[in-house]
C-alpha cells in the first residue's frame, strides 16, 4: 500500500502559465506538477533542481524516506518549507503508487532507476493512465531507448486521435547519464565552468567579466550586472550569497553605457571552434609508415644478400658467356634451389651453383623476418598511435568507458587535441580512438611514467573519468605534483566526498582549477530541462536567482507576433537571443539535444544570433529567449498580466520606448 507523507506548507504561489493547447485543463508548462520515481542520487538531484531552480511542485515515489540510497536526503527536501516537495512511499511504482502521486494530472514523469526493465514497465503504466504525460526515462541501452521513444509516442496518437501532441508536448525523452554529463565535463575542462547551455548544437556559457573586458570574446549579450568583482578567465558566474543587493538580470543595453570599467557583469559567450585548432578529418585508411617497415639490421641483411646475388650473376655471365639476363635467371634458380644439378657443366658452373645454394640457405629465414616485421609494423600503424613527441596544450583523458567515450567525441568535435589513457584494451571507447587516430596509451595510470608519457606536464587539462574514484583521485594528485597549474575535472561517485576533495584541492592549489563532480549532479539539469518540455533548453544560476533559456513559438503569442525584437524584449524579464532560421517542416523538435557534425559548436547553424532590434517577428517564427522564471511564465502564456496594452516596449525594451512610453499597437 502506498503511503503519502504530509506535504509541507506550500510556498507563495508564482505566476501560473496557461496551457498552450491540448486537452489538459490544469496548468501546464512551468506550473505543471512533476513526478519523480527513484531514490538514487540522480533522483535527489533532480528533485532539488525542479523545486529550487524551476520552482515546481514535485512528488517523489520511492521505497522509503528513512532508508535506501537517498531516502534521508529526499526526506530533507520534503521537510524544507521553502520547497514544494511531497513523497509517496511504495515498494514499487505500480498503478496505485502512480495514482497516489497524482499521475493523472501531472505534467511530467521522470524514471531514474538504474533498472531499464523497471523504467520501461513504469513508463508503459504511466502512459496508459495519462496519455498526455511528458516522460523522461533513464536508460543505459540507447538502441532500446530509441525504440521505446517511438513506441510511446505512437501510443499517444493511438489512444487520443484528436490530440495535438505538439501543443501539449506529450513527448518521450530517453537519456543516459553519460550523454547528459559529458557536455558539462567538457566545458569544465575546456573553459573552466560547467554552467553551459546547448542551443541548436551550439555550446553557450555564462561568464563573469567586467564592463571593460566584456567584449573580449565577442559576447552574445549581457545577462546580468553585478557589484564590483574582479575579472577572471577561469571563474564561474557570480554566486556570492552575502550580496544582499543581488544582480540586475537582463539589463537594458542602455544601462551599460557610462558604467565604470571595473563593474562586474555576466555575459553569454559562445564556445566555438578556433581555426588553428580545427581537427582534420581522420583518414579512412591508416597512414602506413612504409619507410619503417623494415628495421635497419633487416635492411642491411637484404642489401647484403642482394649484392651477393648480383655478384653471382655477374660471375655466371663471365663463365658461361650467356646473355646477362640468362645468367641472372640461372643464378636465381640456383639460389632458390630449383635448378638441375650441373653434373655435365664446367667446374666454374658447378662452383657457382654451390655458392648460389649456400646463399639461398640465408634467404628463407630472411624472408620470414621480413614477413613478421612488416606484419608487426602494419599492425602498429593500424591500431592506436602513441602520443606525439612534444605535444602540448592538449587534454589528457583518463578512462574510455561510457562517459569517457562521449567526452572524447565532444573534444574531437571541438578540435581539441586529446591523449587518452585506458587500462582495458576492450573498453567501449577504444574503437572510437582507433577509428579517429587518437593517441592512446593502453596502460594502468597508477604505474609510474604513464602520465609523463601522455605529456601531462605540457597539457592544458586532465579529465579523470574512470569508474574507480580511487584511481581518479590518485591520478589527480600525481598530476598536480607534476603540473601544479593543471585544470582538473575529476569524476567521483559520492557527492560529499567530491565536495570535500574539491575544497581541499582548491585550498592547496589556489592558482589552479579543480572540478570534482558526480555524474548524477551533472546529469540532473538535463533531466530537469527535459521534464520542463522541449522548449526549455536549460537554466543558469546568477547569484541567488535563475535565468531560464527556452525556445518559444511566435505564432499566436501576442507578446511576440507582430512586434520587433526591440519592442518584444523586456529588461528584467526576458530577452530575445536568436531566431530559428530552419524551415518549419525541418526544424528540430528539441533545440537542446546534442548533435555531431561539421556545424557543431559554430555560429553558422540554423540559429541566427545577434538579431537586429528592428527585426519584425511574424507567425511561423521560433525564437530562443533568456528569461527569469516569472518572465518565462508570462511569455509562454502570451498574455501580459499588467493589461492588454502593455508590451515589451513599455518595459524599456532595447530599441523600444522608455519605461513610461505607451506601447505600440500590435
N/C terminus separation: 55 Å
Rounded mean pLDDT score: 76
Cα-based radius of gyration, to the nearest Å: 33 Å
Widest sheet, order of strands: 1-4-3-2-5-6-7
Strand content: 15-25%
Low-confidence stretches: 6-31, 229-244, 274-286, 595-602, 644-666
- Annotation, overall tally of beta strands: 23
Secondary-structure class: alpha/beta
**Helix share, percent:** 25-40%
Considering the protein shown, what is the CATH homologous superfamily of the domain at 3-175? NAD(P)-binding Rossmann-like Domain
Q: Categorize the overall geometry.
A: elongated
Q: Mind describing the biggest β-sheet?
A: 7 strands, mixed
Q: What count of helical segments does DSSP give?
A: 18
**Which CATH C-level class of the domain at 3-175 is it?**
Alpha Beta
CATH architecture of the domain at 3-175: 3-Layer(aba) Sandwich
CATH topology grouping of the domain at 3-175: Rossmann fold
Description:
The chain has about 675 residues and is an alpha/beta fold. Among the domains are: about 5-175, 3-Layer(aba) Sandwich (Rossmann fold); about 290-380, Helix Hairpins, CATH 1.10.287; about 530-650, Regulator of K+ conductance, C-terminal domain (Alpha-Beta Plaits, 2-Layer Sandwich), CATH 3.30.70.1450. Helix content is about 35%, strand content about 20%. The protein has 18 helices and 23 strands. Helix 1 (about 40-55) links the parallel strand 2 (about 35) and strand 3 (about 55-60). Helix 7 (about 175-190) crosses helix 16, helix 8 crosses helix 9 (about 325-335) and helix 9 crosses helix 10. The chain is elongated. Residues about 5-30, about 230-245, about 275-285, about 595-600 and about 645-665 have low confidence and may be disordered.
Amino acid at each position: 500500500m502506498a503511503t503519502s507523507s504530509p506535504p509541507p506548507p506550500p510556498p507563495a504561489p508564482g505566476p501560473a502559465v496557461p496551457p498552450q493547447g491540448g486537452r489538459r485543463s490544469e496548468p501546464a508548462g512551468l506550473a505543471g506538477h512533476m513526478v519523480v520515481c527513484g531514490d538514487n542520487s540522480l533522483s535527489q538531484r533532480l528533485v532539488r533542481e525542479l523545486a529550487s531552480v524551476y520552482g515546481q511542485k514535485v512528488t517523489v515515489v520511492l521505497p522509503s524516506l528513512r532508508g535506501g540510497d537517498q531516502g534521508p536526503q529526499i526526506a530533507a527536501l520534503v521537510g524544507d518549507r521553502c520547497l514544494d516537495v511531497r513523497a509517496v512511499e511504495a515498494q514499487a511504482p505500480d498503478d496505485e503508487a502512480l495514482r497516489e502521486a497524482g499521475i493523472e494530472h501531472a505534467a511530467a514523469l521522470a524514471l531514474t532507476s538504474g533498472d531499464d526493465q523497471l523504467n520501461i514497465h513504469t513508463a508503459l503504466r504511466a502512459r496508459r493512465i495519462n496519455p498526455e504525460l511528458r516522460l523522461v526515462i533513464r536508460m543505459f541501452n540507447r538502441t532500446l531507448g530509441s525504440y521505446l521513444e517511438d513506441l510511446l509516442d505512437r501510443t499517444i496518437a493511438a489512444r487520443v486521435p484528436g490530440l495535438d501532441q505538439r501543443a501539449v508536448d506529450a513527448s518521450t525523452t530517453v537519456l543516459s547519464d553519460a550523454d547528459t554529463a559529458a557536455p558539462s565535463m567538457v566545458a569544465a575542462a575546456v573553459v573552466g565552468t560547467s554552467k553551459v547551455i546547448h542551443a541548436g548544437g551550439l555550446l553557450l556559457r555564462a561568464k563573469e567579466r567586467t564592463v571593460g573586458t566584456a567584449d573580449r570574446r565577442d559576447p552574445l549579450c549581457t545577462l546580468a550586472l553585478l557589484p564590483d568583482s574582479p575579472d577572471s578567465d577561469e571563474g564561474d558566474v557570480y554566486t556570492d550569497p552575502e550580496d544582499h543587493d543581488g544582480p540586475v538580470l537582463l539589463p537594458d543595453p542602455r544601462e551599460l553605457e557610462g558604467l565604470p570599467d571595473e563593474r562586474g557583469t555576466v555575459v553569454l559567450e559562445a564556445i566555438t571552434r578556433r581555426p588553428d585548432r580545427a581537427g582534420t578529418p581522420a583518414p579512412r585508411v591508416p597512414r602506413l609508415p612504409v619507410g619503417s617497415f623494415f628495421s635497419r639490421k633487416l635492411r642491411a641483411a637484404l642489401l647484403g644478400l642482394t649484392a651477393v646475388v648480383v655478384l653471382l650473376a655477374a660471375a655466371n655471365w663471365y663463365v658461361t658467356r650467356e646473355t646477362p639476363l640468362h645468367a641472372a635467371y640461372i643464378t636465381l634458380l640456383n639460389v632458390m634451389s630449383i635448378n638441375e644439378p650441373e653434373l655435365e657443366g664446367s667446374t666454374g658452373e658447378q662452383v657457382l651453383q654451390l655458392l648460389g645454394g649456400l646463399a639461398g640457405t640465408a634467404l628463407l629465414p630472411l624472408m620470414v623476418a621480413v614477413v613478421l616485421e612488416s606484419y608487426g609494423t602494419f599492425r602498429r600503424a593500424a591500431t592506436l598511435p602513441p602520443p606525439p613527441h612534444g605535444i602540448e596544450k592538449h587534454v589528457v583523458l583518463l578512462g574510455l568507458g561510457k562517459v569517457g567515450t562521449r567526452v572524447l567525441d565532444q573534444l574531437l568535435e571541438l578540435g581539441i587535441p586529446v591523449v587518452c589513457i585506458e587500462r582495458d584494451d576492450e573498453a567501449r571507447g577504444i574503437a572510437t580512438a582507433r577509428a579517429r587516430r587518437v593517441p592512446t596509451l593502453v596502460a594502468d595510470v597508477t604505474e609510474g611514467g604513464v602520465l609523463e608519457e601522455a605529456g601531462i606536464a605540457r597539457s592544458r587539462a586532465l579529465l579523470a573519468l574512470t569508474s574507480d574514484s580511487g584511481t581518479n583521485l590518485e591520478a589527480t594528485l600525481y598530476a598536480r605534483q607534476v603540473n601544479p597549474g593543471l585544470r582538473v575535472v575529476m569524476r567521483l561517485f559520492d557527492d560529499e566526498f567530491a565536495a570535500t576533495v574539491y575544497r581541499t584541492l582548491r585550498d592547496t592549489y589556489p592558482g589552479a582549477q579543480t572540478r570534482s563532480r558526480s555524474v548524477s549532479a551533472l546529469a540532473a539539469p538535463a533531466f530537469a530541462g527535459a521534464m520542463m518540455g522541449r522548449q526549455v533548453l536549460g537554466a543558469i544560476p546568477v547569484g541567488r536567482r535563475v535565468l531560464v533559456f527556452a525556445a518559444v513559438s511566435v505564432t499566436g503569442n501576442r507578446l511576440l507576433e507582430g512586434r520587433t525584437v526591440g519592442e518584444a524584449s523586456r529588461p528584467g524579464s526576458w530577452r530575445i537571443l536568436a531566431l530559428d532560421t530552419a524551415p518549419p517542416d525541418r526544424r528540430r523538435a528539441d533545440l537542446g539535444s546534442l548533435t555531431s557534425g561539421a556545424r557543431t559548436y559554430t555560429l553558422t547553424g540554423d540559429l541566427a544570433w545577434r538579431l537586429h532590434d528592428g527585426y519584425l517577428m511574424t507567425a511561423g517564427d521560433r525564437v530562443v529567449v533568456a528569461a527569469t522564471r516569472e518572465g518565462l511564465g508570462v511569455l509562454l502564456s502570451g498574455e501580459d498580466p499588467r493589461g492588454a496594452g502593455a508590451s515589451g516596449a513599455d518595459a524599456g525594451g532595447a530599441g523600444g520606448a522608455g519605461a513610461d512610453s505607451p506601447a505600440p499597437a500590435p
